[in-house]
Amino acid sequence: MGQAGMAEAAVRYLRSARTPAPEPVEALPRPELRCVGADERAPLDPAEFRRVLGNFATGVAVITSPPATTADSPAGFACQSFTSLSLDPPLVAFMVGRTSTTWPRIARAGVFCVNVLAAHQAELCSAFAVSGADKFAGVAYDAAPVSGSPRLSGAVAWIDCAIHAVHTGGDHLIVVGRVDALGTAADDPDPEGPLLFHRGRFARLPD
């Protein structure tokens, strides 16, 4: 057998020995949702819970939405609990306290924009963390391209979303958003890093 014949035979062998593609894995059935019983809760001190979880450094974002009606004004609040969720379809999520007075306004609008804050925007974050104030007074922003939600000037990134689903999570709600548009700060040869939050204080990445 010549070299060509040997090569052809080797290819046939490798094809025959190839491991078959795995069967697609079916999604597990959705678990039954229920409240956690009082007898199932560990006796955790809330202050200790905050202290330990505070060791997990997070980015900081401001969630904004446009006025739901002509009688409303834009809504927004500071948020640490933002995360990407799915690539296909593109989904993100954030958590908000069930007693939030801002969340009902965002829910009525049905859309929101995630503004990922830059390292210099700690003061802006603090302003959006205050309840009952005019949070947009003196704040520069334009409209996100799809939802029209306020897109804050100076943020390192923005994600324009529609509310996709809302789930309960203890004393918080888990809001899932479908991403319709997104982008980063205007082309900057030396972009600024993000604002971080760690152990109850703002922080920034080292230069």
Q: What order do the helices and strands follow?
A: HHEEEEEHEHEEEEEE
The neighbouring-strand order within the major sheet is 3-2-6-9-10-5-4
Instruction: Tell me the Rg in angstroms.
Output: 24 Å
Task: Supply the CATH architecture of the domain at 48-81 and 102-160 and 193-204.
Answer: Roll
Description of the structure:
- The protein has 207 residues and is an alpha+beta fold.
- The protein contains four helices and twelve strands; from the N terminus they run H-H-E-E-E-E-E-H-E-H-E-E-E-E-E-E.
- It has helices spanning 3-17, 46-53, 103-109, 122-128, and strands at residues 58-59, 61-65, 75-79, 82-86, 91-97, 111-116, 141-143, 150-152, 157-169, 172-184, 195-198, 201-204.
- A seven-stranded antiparallel β-sheet has the order 3-2-6-9-10-5-4, sandwiched between helices. The protein has a three-stranded antiparallel β-sheet with strand order 1-11-12, with no helix packed on it. It has a two-stranded antiparallel ribbon with strand order 7-8.
- 25% of the residues are buried.
- The mean pLDDT is 84.
How would you concisely characterize the structure shown here?
This protein has 207 residues and is α+β, with helices and mostly antiparallel strands.
